[in-house]
Amino acid sequence: MSALLKLQDITVKGRSQPRLDRVSLQVDAGERIALLGPSGAGKSTLLAVANGLLTPQQGRVFWQGEARARSGRARRRQQARIGTLWQDLRLIEELTVQQNLNAARLAVWGWPRALLNLLMPLETKACTTMLQRLDLDPALLNQPVSALSGGQRQRVALARLLRQEPQLLLADEPLASLDPRLAGELLTLLLELANPPRALLLSLHRPDLLAGFDRVLGLRAGRLVFDQPMASLEPGQLAELYAGTPGA
Amino acid sequence: MRPAAPLWVLLPALIVLPLLALLPGISHGGGWELVGQFAAAALRPSLDPIVLGSVLGGLAVTAGMALLGWAGSLVLGLVLGIASSRVVWRTCYGSAAPASWIRRLLAIPRSIHELLWGLLLLQVVGLQPVVAVVAIAIPFGALVARVVSDLLDALPTASLEALRCGGSPAPTALFTALGPPLLPQVISYSGYRLECALRSATLLGVFGLGGLGTELRLTLQSLAFNELWSGLWLLLAVMLLLEALMGWLRRRWSMPARLGLSQRGVGSQGQEMVAGAMALLPVLVMVAWRLEVQPATLLQWQGLPPLGAADWGAVAALPWPSLIGNTLLLTLVAAALAVGLAPLLLLLATPWPAAGALVRGLWALGRLWPPPLTALLLLFVLQPGVLTGALALAFHNLGILGRLLLEAAETSGGNKEQALLAAGVGPRLALLYGRFSGLARPYLAYGAYRADVILRESVVVGLVGATGLGSQLLEALSSFAGDQLLALVLAYALLTLLGEDLSDRARQWLLETPHGDGHPQEAGGTWR
Q1: Which of A92, A95, A109, A119 would best serve as a mutation to test chain B binding (most B beta carbons within 10 A)?
Q2: In chain A, what are the domain boundaries?
């Protein structure tokens, strides 16, 4: 399978110790990867490097074989192919569901369309399809996001992610603040959406939810301590990964 | 078709389009060379020791007047604020009716600009150091009183009720339950008022009440631009230092941010705050002594020229519709320009740090540069009139609004902007969608308040001529036309009160309409 994202010897410095220390990994199309590690291990930093929000002090990032552009349009074009699902969802509360979904297209739209989106409903058909795909009522399109329930917001965030048409889905602890039922539903949805040629890299805290993943990464104190197929993961490795951390 | 929140903040900037069409008609172009000399002098301020000594002396007088006027306004404001608080009257007396009456009375001194107070007092007691201090203290005191009473009435009363049920006397219960949460908010607000007082003291100087303002006006009128810039750079440095100090104190004491978006606690380190306030006392005494501020001189009225019998026919014959219409037009144009240009400039400058620094510098200059001086400068190239006055006021208020917008943008919506940036959205669109969405309502609510301030301030650009009530008022003042003066001050006060009521309603609508994650916006009522 072709490599989507490749991180090579990535180091991100922190105040006292590196937040990431010479981390290398590759994400191929169609892979579903879980990123495990205790709090402060560097999971969010790794995802921020992956989606381009953070530029590492050392190391190189490749997207589909090309080195990541330093700035400008070329970099934004690469970033547009990587979608992130945030733990706090980061929906724009003051806008309608449709405007939020369309916000995912801003990277490829010009200013006129971006401004029109704030004036009138645009691309209603595409947005309706997105909502239906996630079992949401299309009547929600004109609702402000602030009027939605917690579960609906999760799905709208997912719909926005899909509307971006990314090839790599990143998710930063999306299940952390959800009750078990919602967490299970969301994870199932995410795993379903990560079909080839799309890939998924998801950070999580709960080893009991690893069943649907192909590969597992273990991160501790900024270092990658294991990177292996899910099937070969030993319980002892998990215990070692979380050893000495509260709740371990 | 209904514009969404991020567009609201940009819509007022549309006023630029008709203005661009009108400007060629009012420009005379004769003074571009002078404007060029003025701009070039910014890089070559005079370093002559005599000039610097004079500028420093002027600055010390301005800062002293500002400090004393500010302190006086705080004392007045706290006392009157408590006296006009509904919760205080209800707790002590059982009815809030007296509070409403006191509030209405306080609206009158609040509606009259400090410049008018200064010029009126100047006529009555002559040029005394105390004039500027009192001119600042009266309207600022009435303003602080309104804010203090609003803050008091907005505080949760559960602990007050608990103490009253436990048998505590009303004053003790009020002090114990409402004092601690009120203190940081009042201190945070009073810091902001100190910045305003420094700007007002400079402005009063422009009109001859002494200090740096007088120096600035004299150097501008004598086209000594290098000397003018010596004063301006110094004033800029002091203003930025003061703003930085206030920002630092606000952060250190966890005080509420200006638009209330940062969701911080109500404040901490009360002992440090009280100690800071106490340390100010000896400073105030020393400044008053150095400036020879003697309140007793307020009672020594100078001989006024004989006032003729009131000619109410002549008063009625004044072109009232045009005076009021021009004042309102000036206010609307200046407010739309200031409110609309701040977010537009921020958007345009966003991708380039150097442009951002330039815009910030421009805003800082706008804040400190008194509008009458901007008006005088604009007269080099524009004809006197409503638009020239509006541009001068807009530049000043743009500086204030721009800074506020920047402060608010730094504390809210960062994660949404970040999410958009991570998805490959450009920095301008990420700012527009990510940050301006949440900022739109509180920013426009503040803009509504600012329009109300601009209406009060329109008097200060009266010297540009044909700017409505302001210029007529200055004319009446200089010709000792007491009847006209009285009628114009009353008209101004009435207009300002109507404007205040209108902007209060606009703020209420903007802040109370359900939106998003429900930022509790007390800010619109607080940052006056």
Answers
A1: A92
A2: 1-81+166-248, 97-165
